[in-house]
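User: Can you model how sodium ion sits in this protein?
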Amino acid sequence: QEKPTLRLSSVVSENDIRAEAFAEIAEAVSDSFDMQVFNGATLVAQGSEMTSIQRGNLEMGLIAPQTIAEQIPAWSIVTSAYLFSDAAHLKATFDSDVGEELNAMAADAGIHVLAPVYFGTRQVNLAPEKEIMKPEDLSGITMRMPGGDAWQFLGEAIGANPTPLAYAEVYTALQTGAIDGQDNPLPNDYNMKFYEVTSQIVLTGHLIGFDVLAISKELWDGFTPEQQETLQSAVDAAIAKSTQRHLDREAELVQFFKDEGLKVYEPDRIAFRDFAQKKYLESEFAASWPDGMVDRINALAE
Amino acid sequence: MSWEFGAAVALIISSAIIGLPIGHAMLASSVFYLLLQGQDMSIAFEQMLTGLYGSYVLLAIPLFIFAADLMNVGSLSDRLLDFCRALVGRFRGGLGHVNVVSSLIFSGMSGSAIADAVGMGRIIINLMTKDGKYPGAYAGAITAASAIIGPIIPPSIPMVLYALVSDTSIGFLFLGGVVPGLILGVLLMAMNAWQARIHDYPVEDPVPLREMPRITLRAVPALLMPVILLVGIYGGITTPTEAAALAALYAFLVSTVFYRSVTLRMAYQTVRQSAKSTAAVGFLIAGALAFNYVVTIEQVPNVIRGALGETELTRWSFLLMVNAMLLLLGCLLEANAILLVIVPIFLPTAVALGVDPVHFGVIVVVNTMIGLATPPYGLLLFVVTSITRSPIRDTIRHLLPFLAIMIAGLAIITFLPELVLWLPRLYGYNG
Amino acid sequence: MTTPSRPIRTLRGLAEAVPAILLATMFLCFIIQVFMRYVMNSPVGWTVEICVIAWLWILLWGQSVSAEESDEIRFDIVYGSARPAVRRWFRVAFSVVLVGIYAWSLPALWDFVTFMKIQKTSYLDIRFNWVYSIALVFSVVSILRYAWIFWGALSGRDTGQSSIEDIGRKDFSE
Ligand code: NA
Ligand code: NA
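Assistant: Here's the modeled complex, given as structure tokens:
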């Protein structure tokens, strides 16, 4: 019997830690599956992974939760600021009955969630030297956020003036002053050399960044239990390792950025958290959140 | 690579040769591939639609086209020409120099070689051939050669396309093109001086120096355009994409409000024409996006990388090979198609061999632009011969020395990356 | 060529006005975007969405509904220099290819476009089946246009002279 072909489309670059994780998965399941990894959004355009899976034209995808939320509004809860406190909380939530509920909604849309894939905690990175302790301090600061209204709202929720801009143009825009800042996990700040054109990193930790590694529901249901087990355990092992590597890297980079002469400090996170959660609860996003889910997720934090 | 892939490529080539528009040839062949593979045929259209929808940087293209069209409709081009004539017309082969210098300045506002050739080119060809001063074929040849510089000096539509497929910063690519563009300009002027001596081309009556201030003043609004773009992008006002809109706004205001040379009706005609050009270029990109899916799913880049890996290429032999191959392709293929389909295949190898992506981008753009003027398939060649009405054979004969010196220039740019990277590095690029 | 009748010219004018208006809109949106961010310090995001939709429609509308043969970029070394009798058969062949492939894929395209109602655009909440419906217009109009070319070539009424005599005066841009 021929091995099933699994084409995975992701937006991560070839030298990303996650690309290594996908290669490890492909290697680990090679006896059971012919898994082909297409990184850099070369196979399907960014944001089209979910519809491609739904239409049966793609087997696996690394899907942004914002993309899922476009179809399943309840999922916007996991894209909101200050929901998860760290990577462990993220994993605990997806392992809990809350995760089961979210995954069931995705399954109804034809997507089987294999794992949340952590890629770093988003921190505010600014060119101006102004000290930022409260969300009010970010008022009037033009901050680049990824395009789309969920992302732009995230910027508003921490008090900034969000503006969309292509990722490749952020460096120049920071340097020329077209924007005052941007938000990304520390490894991204390092890879894109943003630290050269900014003066400070405010450890707001406003969003635990993650994508969802998913496979076609129809395909998954057609697998034998052994095949499911093979794939799931390969995913679990590789993603656990990848998460740990991201955490180690982030810890390392704090010192690196300090050595580069940046101010790296923690603001009043409670103030940010209260401000953001209030903004979200007043927004149209919260209207679609299942009752009590925020509290249940909060309860899962250690 | 599968036989279905071979069939799709064969269909693109054969249908394009018998005259099916290239965009349709690529799109239809991608659908054909999916049909043969038994896959969902809508994927080709989906790739085209999501690719176009998701590529925000491409929006610079229609706006750069619009800005250049406005420049040509308004009298900005004429004033610019008067200025260049006063500046370099006094030397032997003067109008040839004027041709090159005006292209250099115009290229600071236009992102397109064709826009340069049909706009500035038409005016200056008429000047050169009036009273039989220069053979039409020579005027056409130097116009085509100098138009090549257009997209090398920023702004540049091909560089926008390169940035799209390579994830390189448009800002740094633009800066990277400045020095190479100027070098090519100087080389062309040297070649023109030499040709002028051989063929004994005339010297213009020098424009009296006391006229200079008036002529310069008249040209100031046009000369300011590149400054506006640079200040827009590097002064933190706009992104490179938005700078195109700023350029169009400036051209619009200057020609309608300041010069009053453009009526509302003319403005509408210009928008209409720009939209047409946009659709023509954009549809090529659309076709390439659909076909890129086929190339990716067939893992063509990996196959080529594998093949290259076995040949133990050094950085220089790789660049030499890419240049030779692009020049060859440039004789046959459309420049945008080359950028969109070929770059993703070779860029990974280039980076693995330590070639800087901005340097590589400038090389590729210079190369594909030279391809625009190389026979048999060169759009610039068709454009200038349709203006001069001289036989294409004669134009090619006059073009050869210019192409030779451009290729020499390409070699210089290839082997001295510092020339390209100096300016971006000055501005903070780490490559 | 005979001059087209008045209603035809009016229709053509309207067809060409669509991409022109879209381009003008795109231009205005960009100006608003820069103005709001740089001058007002209050950036907006919806302008980007209007621009990408306009871009999509300009090209697909412009290359189908309002396209003339001289607006299309083709490889014309062989085609342009072929004798009219030969070129006629070229036209028969390529229009068969295009009509056949686009017609065959039309149901699949319809399926995709209607499926996309599942997603809405981010800022303006327009369903993607509407955004992408231009692809259906494009495909249907292209099929009709090329069926017309096929018929013209087969009946010997049109050898495609008009599509080559303008080579070089096309103002497309590299
Ligand atoms: Na010129
Ligand atoms: Na230029």
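A couple of observations from the model: Chain A touches chain B through 33 residues (CB under 8 Å). Residues B 107, 110-111, 150-151, 153-156 surround sodium ion (ligand 2) (CB under 6 Å).
User: Helpful, thanks.
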